[in-house]
Amino acid sequence: MTVLTLGLDRARTEVRTFFRAGDTVLFTFAFPVIMLLVFSTAFSELSDFGEAPDGSVVNAATYYLPGMVASGVLLIGVQSLAVDIAGERADGTMKRLASTPLPVASWFLGKIGQVLVTGALQLALLLAVAALAFGVDLPTDPGTWARFAGIWLLGLATTSLLGIALSRLPRSGRSATAVIVPITVVLQFVSGVYLPFSQLPGWLQSVASAFPLRWLAQGARSVFLPPEFAAAEPSGSWDLPSVVLWLGVWLVVGLVVTLVTFRWIRQDD
Fold first, then answer.
1. pTM of the entire structure?
2. Which one, of 64, 63, 107, 66, lies nearest residue 88 by Cα?
């Protein structure tokens, strides 16, 4: 069997395993939707988010949707993957896999395949709730959706590799959540997910701009918000070349760190 065939088979196994963990499934799929509900309801009376080209008011749900999309990618790529792999190292799953003929490349493909499937389902649920429950007008231009697909796939690949790399940080499966979750929470607050990025202090914008979530959120805003909102970005535009550049840089960083540090088991075990 080829590496690709084994990877696809491993991806099917990973997806089945993921959906057997009810609490993980609930958190992964419900969290972005719940946060969209919270912000849309809390700020539903505000009317100063801006206007669309046709003069209609951009409501709170439309304004916060891009941030929730970016947050979902981070949670399913970095947080969920890092915590799961750390747990698999702790419970012996990784050690058992090391004794099988499964190539490391196939294992990587399996993990990324699982993230791709669950990420697509999470995104579909979030967009459906936004459109049906909150009246968000989703893009109708195929070119816009094509641009979004490219940004989303690049972001998912980047966060997946970073999740695998960060899984080395926790020294035990029990400590994985305590180590990984604070990282993702802080990034969400400083990257324009929950708070308008332009309202953050300049030094904090500079710090956040060194991390991929800030650019992923900006790329999502370029898809779901009217073009006039680009003026609120630090550069005064959506600056999509920088979005691709920084996500690409972190993709390479995640890949290099993963290849250098990956072990089936911890060396200190």
1. 0.91
2. 107
- Please calculate the CA angle 128-129-131 and round it to the nearest 5 degrees: 65
Tokens encoding 124: 């579909």
Q: Among the listed ranges 12-21, 47-56, 129-138, 229-238, which one has the minimum average pLDDT value?
A: 47-56
**Contact predicate 75/68, CB 8 Å:** no
Tokens of 261: 């540090």
User: Cβ distance 262 to 173 under 8 Å?
Assistant: no
Report pLDDT digits (tens) over 50-67.
776 666 678 889 999 999
Sign of CA dihedral 223, 227, 233, 238: positive
**How far is residue 14's CA from residue 96's CA, in Å, rounded to a whole number?**
15
Going 128 to 132 to 135 to 140, the CA torsion angle's sign is positive
SS3 57: strand
Give the residue from 261, 258, 152, 262 showing the smallest Cα distance to 212.
152
141 Cα distance to chain centroid: 24
Expressed in angstroms, the distance from the first to the final Cα of the chain is 32
Q: Are 119 and 76 in contact (CB under 8 A)?
A: yes
- In contact, 248 and 153? CB cutoff 8 Å: no
Residue 71 has pLDDT above 80, yes or no: yes
**Token pair for 199:** 């309202």
Cβ burial of 173 (10 Å; 0-12, 13-18, 19+) is: middle
